[in-house]
Amino acid sequence: VQVVESGGGLVQPGGSLRLSCATSGFIFSAYDMRWFRQAPGKEREFVAYISSDGESTIYDDSVKGRFTVSRDDAKNTVFLQMNRLKPEDTALYYCNVYALDYWGQGTQVTVSS
């Protein structure tokens, strides 16, 4: 099983990034997926959820209206589109396969001028 996040980087406040989480080794289309993040000195926190059929999404209040989670089952990949980024969005972002509790290594997002 592989879960590999990418797409992080340094962006100015108000900017955008699109994170990707490429997976392999399991039946991607059968599983709900989640995004989490962890800032330095803080606990890991939930960011977004998408159901296995893509019909249901849930967001933490802190990102609602700015972030959009989506998935492409043909590519076994889940995405996190992040718009209007704020300095407080700075964190290591992780992808999670919900029921299997598989995690990637994370991708760093830094929002700073």
Distance between the termini: 37 Å
What proportion of the residues is helical, as a percent range? under 10%
Q: Mean pLDDT, rounded to whole units? A: 97
Number of helices: 0
Structural class of the secondary structure composition? mainly beta
Low-confidence stretches: none
Order of helices and strands: EEEEEEEEEEE
What's the count of strands? 11
User: How much of the residues is beta strand, in percent?
Assistant: over 45%
Which of globular, elongated, flat, extended, rod-shaped describes the shape? globular
Task: Outline the secondary-structure elements.
Elements: E1 2-6, E2 9-11, E3 17-24, E4 33-38, E5 45-50, E6 57-59, E7 67-72, E8 77-82, E9 91-97, E10 102-103, E11 107-111
Parallel strand pairs: 2-11
Antiparallel strand pairs: 1-3, 3-8, 4-5, 4-9, 5-6, 7-8, 9-10, 9-11
Main features:
single chain; 113 residues; mainly beta; seven-stranded mixed beta sheet; four-stranded antiparallel beta sheet
Explain the overall architecture.
The structure is a single chain. Helix content is 0%, strand content 50%. It has strands at 2-6, 9-11, 17-24, 33-38, 45-50, 57-59, 67-72, 77-82, 91-97, 102-103, 107-111. Strands 2, 4, 5, 6, 9, 10 and 11 form a seven-stranded mixed β-sheet that branches. A four-stranded antiparallel β-sheet has the order 1-3-8-7, with no helix packed on it. The radius of gyration is 13 Å and the shape is globular. The model has no long low-confidence stretch (mean pLDDT 97).
